Amino acid sequence: MPPPIPRRPRNPVRLLAGVLAVVLAVLLAGCSSGSGSGSGSGVGASASVPAWAHGMGTVRQAQLPAEARRTLGLIDKGGPFPYAKDGVVFGNFEGRLPRHQRGYYREYTVRTPGSRDRGARRIVTGQGGEIYYTDDHYNSFRAVLR
């Protein structure tokens, strides 16, 4: 029986590089699946996502709460709106939406059942036709796909 062939010790740097390459490939595959970023995307890989919505979570209009769909209907009709602050300039001070000049975005209240005030839900529209929905008072947004 021939003597065993001595194995070279594994290079830890090469091993780590290989593991990182696999992890990166898995992450990139997940990002390109069309699911958007963030939870509750609701958009399949075959859905067409407008350029302004790339890189963020998305939600189809039909999957929004009924109150949000009613607010969108009012926006489409130009009102009348139930809250005095509906249609005011949204400043984007949190910087969670793409940066534009002041006045580019407008915000509208989405009624929250059981809330005694305006609640945390809003729809924000952009002059380029963008529609965003937040249910956590501007901490996160999802692009609304119609």
Question: What does it look like?
Answer:
- One of its GO terms (molecular function) is hydrolase activity.
- This is Ribonuclease N.
- Keywords: Hydrolase, Nuclease.
- There is one protein chain.
- By secondary structure, this protein is of the alpha+beta class.
- The protein has a domain of 84 residues: Roll (Nuclear Transport Factor 2, Chain: A), CATH 3.10.450.30.
- 22% of the residues lie in helices and 16% in strands.
- It is built from two helices and six strands, in the order αβαβββββ.
- A six-stranded mixed beta sheet has the order 1-6-5-4-3-2, covered by helices on one side.
- The longest helix has 20 residues.
- The chain is elongated and about 90 Å long.
Topology (elements, then pairings):
Blueprint: H1 12-31, E1 58-60, H2 66-77, E2 88-89, E3 105-109, E4 122-126, E5 131-134, E6 142-145
Parallel strand pairs: 1-6
Antiparallel strand pairs: 2-3, 3-4, 4-5, 5-6
